[in-house]
Design goal:
With 289 residues, this protein is an alpha/beta fold. Helix content is 34%, strand content 23%. The chain contains 11 helices and 13 strands. The strands form 3 sheets. Strands 5-4-1-6-11-8-12-10-9 form a 9-stranded mixed beta sheet. It has a two-stranded antiparallel sheet with strand order 2-3. It has a two-stranded antiparallel ribbon with strand order 7-13. The longest helix has 13 residues.
Length: 289
């Protein structure tokens, strides 16, 4: 069983749910507290032991590449002004040489197509996929533990209310093994009342390289796009898939409410911000009169 060394981050999306903020700034570079969303996602993967980050970008996303590169003038200025803490923080976040790769998705043809664009860099080994809209702490580490137990393909799942299942990709539950279970089927946004479970696909995957051979056919699904879920359904005919119940909460920063909630949650976890922020929230919630 080959280890998981590489992660694919599809960052070519237009961010239309956040216009006009994302007209000139990539949605992945919007900040949760003081770190870009994409930096939080990379932090999660690095903490789990991922070594190589493959960004599938599009036009107007060059700033993401700049963020994960050295900034000589800024570094020099910080050192000259004695701002050692800020300089060391930037240095700590910087991936080592050769740990990042960038490839272009020329047209917005769907998540499956974005993943397929990374095929030459991934090569013939299993890999992770992390959707940069979805923030979750420790999820990839839990997934790698599940992979060590089961091998195969792993999908992170979370429970939602039954009346919300029509908004998500849903998995069917087979034999259960504690935190994980065998997936016996998948459906994308089922009609209300027809979902096989209330476990949603929550934006973290471990996939075997055979997925690329399926995506290569370019079969179009929902919305006329090449859907990753469709390719996983096809791969499930020959390979095992397991669901991993994520013990935590995922924040969809692609939505306004999810983005604001993530900022609050991450800020409340910081000793330097929690107290003052709670006080400000109490002021905002206090009836005006």
């Amino acid at each position: 069983m080959k280890p998981i060394r590489k992660a694919v981050l599809p960052v070519a999306g237009l961010g239309t749910r956040f216009l006009p903020a994302t007209k000139a700034v990539p949605k992945e570079m919007l900040t949760v507290v003081d770190r870009p969303v994409v930096q939080h996602v990379v932090d999660e993967a690095r903490e789990a032991g991922i070594e190589h980050f493959i960004f599938v970008t599009g036009r107007g996303k060059a700033v993401i590449e700049d963020h994960f590169d050295m900034a000589f003038e800024l570094d020099h200025t910080l050192q000259e002004r004695g701002k050692t803490a800020a300089y060391e923080e930037l240095k700590k976040d910087l991936p080592k040489a050769g740990q990042t790769s960038f490839t272009r998705q020329q047209a917005p043809l769907g998540l499956g197509h974005a993943v397929w664009c990374a095929r030459e860099i991934v090569g013939d080994e299993p890999f992770a996929v992390l959707l940069p809209d979805m923030l979750s702490r420790g999820c990839m580490k839990q997934m790698l533990s599940a992979y060590e137990r089961h091998g195969g393909n792993i999908i992170a799942v979370e429970e939602v209310k039954p009346e919300e299942t029509h908004q998500y990709g849903i998995v069917s539950v087979g034999e259960t093994y504690g935190q994980s279970f065998q997936i016996t089927g998948m459906v994308e946004k089922p009609k209300q009342g027809t979902a096989p479970s209330n476990f949603i696909i929550s934006g973290r995957y471990i996939l075997q390289p055979e997925i690329f051979g399926i995506l290569e056919h370019g079969k179009k699904g929902a919305g006329g796009e090449i859907q990753l879920t469709d390719a996983m359904i096809d791969l499930m005919e020959t390979q095992a898939f397991y669901g991993m119940r994520y013990e935590g909460r995922t924040y969809d920063t692609g939505s306004k409410l999810g983005f604001l909630t993530a900022n609050l949650a991450y800020a409340l976890d910081r000793d330097d911000l929690a107290g003052p922020l709670k006080a400000e929230i109490e002021k905002l919630l206090k009836p005006q009169g």
